[in-house]
Amino acid sequence: MYMKVGLFIPCYIDQFYPKVAIATLKLLEKVGCDVAYPLQQTCCGQPMANSGYEHLTGGCNDNFVSNFAGYDYIVSPSGSCTLHIKHHLHGTNETAATEIRSRIYELTEFLTDVLKISTLEATFPYRVGLHQSCHGQRGLHLAQMSELVAPPYSKPVQLLNLVKDLELIQLDRRDECCGFGGTFCVTEEAVSAKMGKDRVADHLRHGVHYITGVDVSCLMHMEGILKRANSNVQVKHIAEILTATV
Amino acid sequence: MNQLNLDHAHAAIEFNKNEPRVDWHDETLWFVRTKRDRAVAQLPEWEQLREAASQIKNHVLSNMHDLLAQFEENAKRNGITVHWATDGAEHNAIIHDLIQKAGATRMVKSKSMLTEECHLNDYLTRHGIEVIDSDLGERIVQMRKEPPSHIVLPAIHLTKADVGETFHEHLGTEKGATDPQYLTEAARQHLRETFLTRKVALTGVNFAIAETGGFVVCTNEGNADMGAHLADVHIAAMGFEKIIPRAEHLGVFLRLLARSATGQPITTFSSHFHRPRPGQEMHIVIVDNGRSRQLGRPDFRNSLKCIRCAACMNTCPVYRRSGGHSYHSAVAGPIGSILAPNLDMKLNADLPFASTLCGSCSNVCPVKIDIHDQLYKWRQVLMQEGYGPTSKTVSMKAMATVLESPRLYRMAGKVGRGVLRFAPVTVENRFNPWYNQREMPEPPAESFRDWYINNKKA
Amino acid sequence: MTTREKILASIQANQPSLMPLPEQFTFTSLFPDLTKQFSDSLAFVGGMAVVVPDYKAIEAHLKEHYPALTNVATTCPELAHMADVILDVADPHELSGLNLTIIEGPLAVAENAAIWVDERQLPHRVVPMITQYLVIIIRQSTIVANMHDAYKKIQVDTTGFGTFISGPSKTADIEQSLVIGAHGARSLIVYILP
């Protein structure tokens, strides 16, 4: 099976967490994808849109379309940015935008739903807590939502279960928001930080070594709180764990 | 500080100054959410019930005119007098007039968020009418001269010690007494006397049945019944969206309402009023107050499906950590944040931003209102209509200019990584509140793009 | 234009095009034992169900549960001798001294312990709320599984007032602590006759 995958690396990952992008690229190549990183990509436009300025995202949209038109799949290590593209990408070339909306995948759903990965050569001998980022979970349905009366499933957990020696802990509140929320994290700093502290505390109560997730933005927020508290618990994007070796 | 005069973010700062209290508030409401989860898990058909309720309500919105006309006709035939009010002022004037005609100067009132929305108590008090709220939570906040902070649990922001103090002052309970059983008994005695002596009683309406011209009022305490059945005049106030087509649809809504609200399988009393008792007068006041305008907004009309269960408040991680008063609106929380801008965009422009758009509200909503999508859409409307601060618009325009240009983006990145200034999260605030309680990530030596060019492209 | 006309015209102009009612809006609840389910539901909402063979058993249980109680009233001819006050008063305010009231319920719901009563069971609407203690007698054969079944059996406007009662009155308005006996009855015993 030959498929051309366009790698979409959200702006803040490009700038602050290149290691997450590198892990994503390596992971996709390891499982047999032909991956290209379009060099003129910038941002999905979500920071403006969620602030009420979707009308200013035309330029970002067109740039996104010109970078990603023509790929079989577009894959991104971010549930939130993927969701934004899926719901809000339009463009001067609407046909291409529509194509992209139907071809973009968050990394874990791409691995489970498209590639149907059932084995992984990864080892991570630590206690890990999974933060269910809301946009991935409730937006992209990466995992069953605790509010619904419906059978459980979780694409990230399915993948983490393939990792040797990894011990996944159960949180008291399994899918509560961490409070990042884009610009919410500064415009509503008091609530945002409190939500983050509470989310981190749930993981710490269960003795985790690492907090992982499918969205670096949530992890960056929680990392900021962990660091301020001088905790030695670290955050790792799921791609880093799925490519980890001893 | 009075939270009601602040925007949500500033009121939330005040609320968060007492962290143990925030923890307590969060845990108390999370407890209600978990009770709800247990209750709904017992019905395998829960999601189908939500879908049925949503469709019934969609039909109601689309057939509102005829259903209201049918309801009015049948209610009149039942001997109920029907009044119509365009806004809060008319609603208040109608009720004042009915009280005066009854020759009364005092009224007992069970829970009605509509009367909160219309500020009825203030109005009547100014006109020399004494109103006593009979729902325990409402009575507590009324004594404290505060508005309710939650539509189902009006005093959920108060501890039993707070209530104990209030009752000591107003009902003469023992100083320092905090036992809920003891305090509730004191309120029971106080309100019994009220029920027995008031000639006019006002209740809300949970559901109005077009087919039969009657209405249903749900309470756990029995306070709506105690008031209405002992009064000479019963006034029921309803927003027009409370209408449902037929009595059999109540099967759907009564199964959803209390399970969503408190995790009970049904409220203690679900009282169906169709005709006044002999010698009694029964009035219904049907209120618009912006609802027909909201009905005309395709993106927002289905907020009118709301049955006021407050499940969205209990599940909302922001509500739990900012308190109901921070929403400065009769209906707080996520649902309040999509209803309030319709009433006054300028005053409520902050509310759709009091959310991380996590989506939990839409998932618990028993009538499947797409609350978090509407929060997003209100943000767009409010900013386009110019209700955002100029500084925000300027910085958003600057950010868009940078992010839509690969060249500018890379330049900003090079500078930004060094001084940690470039990130969407830091753009709109000079003093960068990120650092109040958080660190920023260590800046890496190179961006992914640089790494890719150096390591992969060749 | 009257206010009424103004509001209705505005609604007419703004409402979306007609959406159909759902085809399915009733559901079946499968309980192996309706009486047991009803009793469990009632216990959950703070009441007590007692399965009894006949009125004599009700009387015996009541005497044990509420010894030497005065201001007792009933609508039940079989228990009329237990009553020392009447419900047939002109003004419902006269009922404020009621201690214990025994009424009958024509229909009960297993899923939530709700019992329907209307003015055919209630000499005054306020009776089940104003009494300090409430007793409702139902028959096993009248227990239905859920609310959909209940609404198929009742006609809500046969009388001017009817209510579903599920358990004693209660509140959790003070710190979410459940207190039984808010404004209505402080307790509810339901006797289930064959």
What labels describe this entry?
heterotrimer, A: 246 residues, alpha/beta, Rossmann fold, 2 domains, 13 helices, 12% strand, globular, C: 194 residues, 5-stranded parallel beta sheet, 4-stranded mixed beta sheet, 5 helices, 23% helix
Kindly describe this structure.
The complex is a heterotrimer of chains A (246), B (458) and C (194). Chain A is an alpha/beta fold. Chain A has helices at 11-16, 18-30, 46-50, 58-68, 79-88, 94-103, 107-114, 134-139, 155-160, 184-187, 189-205, 216-228, 238-242, and strands at residues 4-7, 34-36, 73-76, 104-106, 127-131, 167-168, 210-213, 234-237. Chain A folds into 2 domains: 4-114; 127-242, Rossmann fold (3-Layer(aba) Sandwich), CATH 3.40.50. Chain A has 13 helices and 8 strands. Chain A is globular. Chain A starts with a strand and ends with a helix. Chain B has 3 domains: 1-42 and 299-388, no CATH class; 43-289, Rossmann fold, CATH 3.40.50; 393-455, no CATH class. Chain B has helices at residues 8-15, 19-41, 46-62, 64-77, 88-101, 113-117, 120-126, 136-143, 160-171, 180-197, 223-230, 250-261, 291-295, 311-315, 317-320, 333-343, 360-364, 371-384, 390-403, 406-419, 434-437, 448-455, and strands at residues 81-85, 106-109, 130-133, 200-203, 207-209, 214-219, 233-239, 243-244, 269-273, 281-287. In chain B, helix 2 packs antiparallel against helix 12 (250-261). The longest helix of chain B has 23 residues, at 19-41. Chain B is globular. Chain B starts with 7 loop residues before the first helix and ends with a helix. Chain C has a single domain (30-193), classed as NagB/RpiA/CoA transferase-like (Rossmann fold), CATH 3.40.50.10420. With 194 residues, chain C is α/β, with parallel strands linked by helices. Chain C starts with a helix and ends with a strand. Chain C has helices at residues 3-14, 34-44, 55-65, 127-130, 147-153, and strands at residues 48-51, 72-74, 100-104, 107-109, 115-118, 133-139, 143-144, 161-165, 170-171, 179-180, 187-193. In chain C, a hairpin with a 7-residue loop joins strand 9 (170-171) and strand 10 (179-180). Chain C contains 5 helices and 11 strands, in the order ααβαββββαββαββββ. Chains in contact: A-B, B-C. At the B-C interface, helix 2, helix 3, helix 4, helix 8 and helix 10 of B face helix 1, helix 5, strand 8 and strand 9 of C. Chain C: It comes from Spirosoma arboris. Chain C: Pfam families: LUD_dom. Chain C: This is LUD domain-containing protein.
